[in-house]
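Tutorial sheet, problem 5. The two components below are modelled jointly, 554 residues in total.
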Amino acid sequence: MKTFDQEEILLKGLAANDTNAIETIYRENFTAIKAFIIKNNGYSDDARDIFQEAMIVLFEKSKSGSFVLSCQLQTYLYSICRRLWLKKLQKQNRFNPSIESIQEIVPVEDEIDLHEKKNQDFLLMEDALQKIGEPCKSLLEAFYIDKKSMPEIADSFGYTNADNAKTQKYKCLMRLKKIFFAQYKNKD
Amino acid sequence: MDENLLLDAVERYNNGEMNDQERLFFEELRKNNADIDEAAAEHTFFLAQLEKMSEQKSFKHNLNEVENKLINEGIISHSKGRTKARVVYLWNRYRRTIAVAAAIAGVISFSTASLISKYSENKKVAVITPLVDNKLNQFEHKLNQIEHKLNDATATTSRPKFEANFRATGFLVDGNGYIVTNAHVVQNAKNLIVENKKGDQFYANAVYANTVTDLAILKITDTSFKKVSGLPYTFPKSTAELAEPIFTLGYPREEVVYGEGYLSAKSGYYGDTASYQISISVNPGNSGGPVIDKDGEVIGIISSKETNADGVVFAIKSKNIYNALSEIKKEKDVTIKLPTINSLKGLDRVRQIKKLEDFVYKVKGN
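Model answer (structure tokens):
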């Protein structure tokens, strides 16, 4: 069993997207989650999906800074997975009221609601990025996601100079924002 | 202030690229001008959203890498675990019927064995297997008979009385009852019926069959067939890319079955440029099913698989449908209009399938 400090370090690693931290958490928790899901009408692929989703929730939480674990990391992950799995079963009308709880659980409803809302926003963004098409999508990704400099981008996309690339980037950005906000505001 | 400059300023401010003087000026500007402040706030929000999305993406990437590593080490079981879990699951739920199922399984494996020995005599077939299920087994025959009896008893819907001896897949390309399938499906068929998800059956005729491209187009002739609208997929004229994720719906069983895979080569058997090689798990009965990419575009039609290689399936490029349609127009003066609006794009897979199911048909015949 990990001490509180060790878990704190793991969470910091997770927030920094460190593969070692991810691996440690996987190794220590996946088997239990899988056992739980298979026991409750799931396949081992379901266990992988649910565990990944839970890791993303944990990642978002650990990034938020204000997050302090009020229980064992293991308990927290288990609670999230359990909730996510219940939701999935409900969606597929396979709800099993007698779902077994082999461990103590902590309330995680708020986390999961927030996570779902965030996922929706990400989907909107990804959708908007798909809609603006190429080369806009690659251009914006190169600048905003890969953090490449304008001269580099001009070079790899074949613009004559950085200023041209910048003008192009601006046009693409405006289109992306227009599509994104149109859907974003529609949603509310 | 020009919007271009404003956005630029917001980005530089957020990235800490401004000097003190600039920063103070910018903060002052935002304080005194509500419009600018709002635009800046909006852009900041947008950038944060973009940033978070990219963070999550790279986190997912790392997650997958760790997962792959652990799969290699055997800590997480791969698809093997899936079948094992599945057995457990079925056992739990259907314990009572398992004895019956075991009895049936005996019959089926029997008939499959004789089937295989028959097939291996024929060398031509041994290399490439068309994916028509032309040996509906006894069990299914029985089921069909029972079904027909039931239908006769209720006699509400006019289902053709029909003893099918093969089964394949097809899908609508025009709401007026035009269905695409494989030429090898209809080749030797005397009668054809198509059946939708709801189980409504309609007689159909082949209006076009080209054994070179292995493409056939059927027309539903039954008067009970009502024009359907809202075909959700479109047909690209361009070639699909290597490694593109794809999926299919088909009838290797009496029930519709979903399968997914990827495009593995841009040409088919022995470099045949009219088809793709795809990697997907399919079985007899999948023939004629649509091969669809993630955006809901039908890039091909499943036709055959290589018998002595695993996971090598060939699909006819959907470009060939355009050629077929122009030939039909020339020969029979019939215009078939392909759908132009794609309503699958951007949906998650489950919803895509929900929309798609109604347009994929079972093709049966004798």
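Marking note: The domain at 245-360 of chain B is CATH 2.40.10.10 (Thrombin, subunit H). Full credit if you identified this.
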